[in-house]
Amino acid sequence: MTDTIEMGRRSFLKTVAAMTAIAMLPPAAKKAHAATTAKRGVDYPILTEKRTLGTGSSAMEVSALGFGCMGLNYHRSRHPDKKQAVYLLHQAVDHGITLFDTAETYGPFINEELVGDALKGYGDKIKVTTKFGFNYNGNKVTGLNSSPRRIREMVGQSLKRLRRDYIDLLYQHRFDPDTPIEEVAETVKDLIKEGKVKHWGMCEVSAATIRKAHKALPLTALQSEYHLMWREPEEDILPTLQELGIGFVPYSPLNRGFLTGMLNEYTKFDAPNDNRAGYPRFTPEAMRHNLMIIEVLNQFGRTRGITPAQIALAWLMNKAGWIVPIPGTTKLSHLEENIRAADIKISEKDWKELENELSKIKIMGDRYPADQQAQVGK
After folding, report:
1. Beta carbons within 10 angstroms of residue 358's beta carbon
2. Per-residue pLDDT of the chain in tens (378 residues, 90 and over written 9)
3. To 5 degrees, how large is the angle CA 266–CA 101–CA 34?
């Protein structure tokens, strides 16, 4: 009887939370939600859990799962047309996602433009993050540049493309050895005073650099690759972030789609618009070998009714309450699959058993080609 009452209470609280989330949506999103729900007449996942990146004046509350926008029109082979991509982003907001990640270098520029067109009008109901750190010749990246002048130039251009008055979280995309991090921090601090930026973060840097940057200007979040096939951040990065009260935003939480179980040695990547075509971990030989990981995930999820992608995302979210993964997708069905991962509850004992099984598999292939690997971990 007690269990029944508790289940009823949980259901009631979840329903209230979902209704509250829907009530806070902009009018257009409410209308879309009503139409979609009426059409389906079935369970409709709403992400209600919130998490906080950073602490104190640097804190930023977001949905427990974000949306990585890059693959909507860049670096993921064939992609939807603009109309479908805009629809999917509207659906993401409608489903409760409030954190959307892009960068000037995605394209370059075209991904920011898409995000700006799709999310205009949502205002402070959502958080949009972007990144600086490169020079360009036309639409070609020509090198690193985090000079104060370049940062200001980038922010001005990004605000126009994003159609926003400010950037919620501005990341340094890659560490620039020619510009002291204190100088970068001072520039961002000025942009915050001017109201053009709300918070700042960094991507793929060492624990030592995180400490220097945080001392100069408190960081809200670090963005880095982290997933079941790349756990190096656990050594130095995660302990440092926890100590300093900095949030963590894992990109490629599904290892660029591999942890969905939908890729194999016969998968063909569109080289002009898919960076995986040149990554050591995505050669046919490496993917054939690494499918052992998918077999373990399938076996783990079969008796629990969950997919490999949901296992990978739930595992990340279970690690700490200040971790917010940003999976990307081009399909509504995968968006909903990802959102349902937030409701998965698995015991620590079972997580340990899964990790033990995966630890027996030696992953084949580096995560980056040598030239790109040289830019991270500075």
Report:
1. 18
2. 434 333 344 444 444 445 455 555 555 545 545 454 444 445 789 999 999 999 999 999 999 999 999 999 999 998 999 999 999 999 999 999 999 999 999 999 999 999 999 999 999 999 999 999 999 999 999 999 999 999 999 999 999 999 999 999 999 999 999 999 999 999 999 999 999 999 999 999 999 999 999 999 999 999 999 999 999 999 999 999 999 999 999 999 999 999 999 999 999 999 889 999 999 999 999 999 999 999 999 999 999 999 999 999 999 999 999 999 999 999 999 999 999 999 999 999 999 999 999 999 999 999 999 989 889 988
3. 90
What type of residue is 330? T
The pTM of this model reads 0.89
Structure tokens at 155: 């922010």
**Residues known to be catalytic:** 106
In the beta sheet, which residues pair with residue 247?
221
Beta bridge partners of 132: 172
State the pairing for strand pair 67-68/99-101: parallel
DSSP string, 89-127: HHHHHHTT--EEE--TTTTTTHHHHHHHHHHTT-GGGSE
Q: Which domains does the chain have, with CATH numbers?
A: 60-373 (3.20.20.100)
**349: its two tokens:** 């004992």
